[in-house]
Amino acid sequence: MTFKGEVAKLLFYACRLFPIKKNKIVIDNYAGKGFGDNGKYIALELLKRNNKYDIVWVTKDLKSCFPKGIRVIPYISLKSIYEQATAKIWIDNLRKAYYIRKRKKQYYIMTWHGGIGPKKIEKEVEDILGKEYVSSAKHDSRMADLFLAESDFTYNKYRKFFWYSGEILKCGSPRQDVFFHDNKVIKQKILSSIGINNYNKKIFLYAPTFRDNMSENDLYIYKRQWKRILSVVSQKFGGAWIGFIRLHPNIAKLDKNRIFEEDYVYDVTNYPDMQELLVASDIVLTDYSSCVYDFGLTGKPGFMIAEDIELYKKQRDLCLDLNVIPFPIASSDEELVHIIENFDYDVYSKKIHDFYYNYCGLYSGGHASEIVCDRIDQIINENM
Questions:
Q1: Residue 142's pLDDT is what?
Q2: Which of 66, 88, 181, 258 is the most exposed, having the fewest neighbouring CB atoms within 10 Å of its CB?
Q3: What distance separates the 2 farthest-apart alpha carbons in the chain?
């Protein structure tokens, strides 16, 4: 049974009558999604340390696989409300619901799902977010005890545009740790999950973001000339290629059959961990999503397509000058094909380096999860 609104609020306050369990950590990924994003990599590090923490994951996807040592609880249920009301630490990457109130001895780590990226967010676009969201966001920031930043870019974002004045830990992003470690088996796992046993296949991942006030009539913006794109990619980089499409959670329920029909393009929207998809991919294409900025850490080719950029600027606008973005930007499939044909690794690599280290001030180095878990150990041990 799930609960919403005032009922959930009353149940949450009722559960606050129970004592806080000092070793309990509750993690939520994007309002009930599966085992992924920053929370996943923090949880894996906690499990590796074997500190006997009670790790609880709230999710709508109860059939998803979780490692031993994590208790899985239905999202927005009496159980999840009780677990959150009695946990010592919360970890979340999305704004919490308005009815949730942190207790004095609880500690909230906000691991925002975005990162370096061109889109304006939060206070930058306050006028289009709606009063309900802004109120919830301000409330969430008041509850937060710690934000995690992977760069000067995101640190400044949090300080200026997240209605937040608390501590920001310059540790890197836990979800980026995977790019700095051995991850050879990830591609095999993903290909096997969609029934492909030829692990030599190369993956072209298309991961567009959402548009505000989007409807089914707007899906044309996501259609790509898959046959031509994969053909030129194969000619340029060699190998046999397949396509992946990963839609933003805000548009995951739209009719993907109207976006692609090719049997060599696979829908991976519901795959729980975007980072694993990025690790497995050989090329990533997006429009305005921050995912390609994580992918750039691999050194592999990343591209952007911005065919509706003028309309997008009117709706949400960009905070990055297109001239500093290191990823080649196309305005159409035709231009994308041309850019791929003329791609130069040396030029690309220099732009990537200059962008991350000179422009954005990157902190990531593969140890963010360890740093965050050191803080968690400290918080919990202080109260034992």
A1: 97
A2: 181
A3: 65
224 alpha-carbon distance from chain centroid: 23
> Residue 35 and residue 71: Cα distance in Å, rounded?
12
Residue 182: which pLDDT band, with cuts at 50, 70 and 90? confident
Is residue 361 left, alpha or beta, with left meaning phi > 0 and alpha meaning psi from -120 to 50? left
CA nearest neighbour of 300 among 321, 279, 273: 279
Distance CA 112, CA 344 (A): 33
Say if residue 230's pLDDT is above 60: yes
Task: Output the pTM of the full model.
Answer: 0.89
Helices (H), the chain: 5-15, 37-49, 78-85, 126-129, 131-143, 152-161, 184-193, 226-237, 274-280, 291-295, 309-315, 333-341, 345-353, 368-382
Residue owning tokens 């909230």:
108
CA dist 126 and 131 (Å) reads: 8
Both tokens of 291, joined, read 């995912």
User: What is residue 234's predicted lDDT score, i.e. its pLDDT?
Assistant: 97
Tell me which residue has tokens 């839609």. 247
Number of Cβ within a 10 Å radius of residue 52: 8
Q: What is the pLDDT of residues 272-317, one digit of tens each?
A: 899 999 999 999 999 888 899 999 999 999 999 988 888 777 777 7
Vertex 226 angle, CA 221 and 227, to 5°: 145
